[in-house]
Design brief:
By secondary structure, this protein is α/β, with parallel strands linked by helices. It is about 30% helix and about 30% strand. The protein folds into three domains: about 140 residues, Rossmann fold (3-Layer(aba) Sandwich), CATH 3.40.50; about 210 residues, Rossmann fold; about 100 residues, ANL, C-terminal domain (GMP Synthetase, Chain A, domain 3).
Length: about 500
Amino acid sequence: MNISQFLARNARKFPNKLAYIDGSNSLTYSEVDNIVNRLASSLSRLHIQPNDKVVLYLPNGLEFVYAYFSVLRLGAIVVPINTRLAKEEVKYILEHSDAKAIIAHHTLSQQLNPLINELDLFWIHTGSNSPPWISLETLINDGSPHLIECNRHDDDDASILYTSGTTGKSKGVLFTHRNILTVANMMVIETNMNKDSRLLHMMPLSHCAPLHLFFIGGLYVGATHVLASQFTPKDFLHLIQLHKITHFFGAPVAYLLTAKQSDIDEYDLSSVKYWLYGGAPLSTQEVQFVQQKFKSDRFMCLYGLTEAGPNGIYLSPEEHRDKAGSIGKHAALHCEAKIVNEKGEEVKVDEIGEIVLAGEGTMKGYYKDPVKTAETIRNGWLYTGDLARKDKDGYIWIVDRKKDMIISGGVNIYPKEIEDVLKTHPSISDVAIIGVPHPDWGETAKAFVVTNEHIPNLEEECKRFLEGKVADYKIPRLFETIDELPRNASGKILKQLLRQKEVKA
């Protein structure tokens, strides 16, 4: 089957079942399917065809639901992107993905106006018709409600998710319908999700885990979805109590910030059966703190990465008592995992190696990059770049990353991308960015900057220079002037020395 067929089937099986809730608006599965047919028919009149790419620049909400499923219903390929990306980042993805159209939220579309004369595609937004912008609402209203059959096969392309790379350019991770449905099926079974489940989506649906594991997982079983365009601790607590949420996935920081709310005890959170987190593990002390505040021991850690679907390894609620901080012992359903050395051999207890994963959720490859694909997937194994060790009980502990990726609040930040921009500043000759510990976010980015002339207020000037060139969450929070960056004989920056400098400070 393909993803679109699951929505159509739910509309037949559960026509009057509450499917998606967005604030005061709610729709049944049959109502959503009707709108999807209408929008798909209008997109078809714009000559959106199978294998065409359509970028979604939308926050969590009903518009995302309509757009996502309408694109897939036509056999086209959906490309959801983070709403916090800057104009130039959006431009790169539109060009690299060969996008035929973009569907943007009206609050975001204005910043894209400078691109209109540069790119030949259909510009659609949630606002009113204002050429060349086409109104999404008008397309829905003018569309036909007649069923459009989606005949895509399991191994046909379905989606491209963009993830920043250490080269400074985003990589398009291409998935088939089989890849996505495989990991959705895994999540359903591992967390006992069913048609009576109620899922809260506060993490961006442009990210792999919220989208594939929970948005599609919930569709898989006909669950009810509650959508929120942004996360705040107050809204989080309110929506869980109001809608009797059963499953939630968030970055560790979402739990840590909420646990610090003075009025958390006033909310009834007892409906939640699984509190899931990923992007970084919680330490033993953090788990104990969060469990106490949430009055629950139903926390589950998920380890994976976009290229894996994400599928990978998990730490069950029952294992948290003794192994919190670990990413778990067992590979999840439909997945295999091991830790290997440079020769590809499994390492012994307490030896450090690289985590590799295998399973049907693994990406088809990097879009238009067969060389990088071959480097990442070898003999059916996905090389994650994460260094880890296995303890005597078989539990896996992340040690470091081969790549210099920073995980801040569950969001990946790749330093080279920001470094390359800062180096274009006329007063900056060199820069290196590392992750430093942060009590709430896990890590935050710090930039070590070499200047060729005095900059009176380094932090203010660097932030101003980066604004609009990279997404706001990628901008370092800490800056330090340094006379010279440490390098080895071949000229490579020794970031480990910078990390050691921070530890000693």
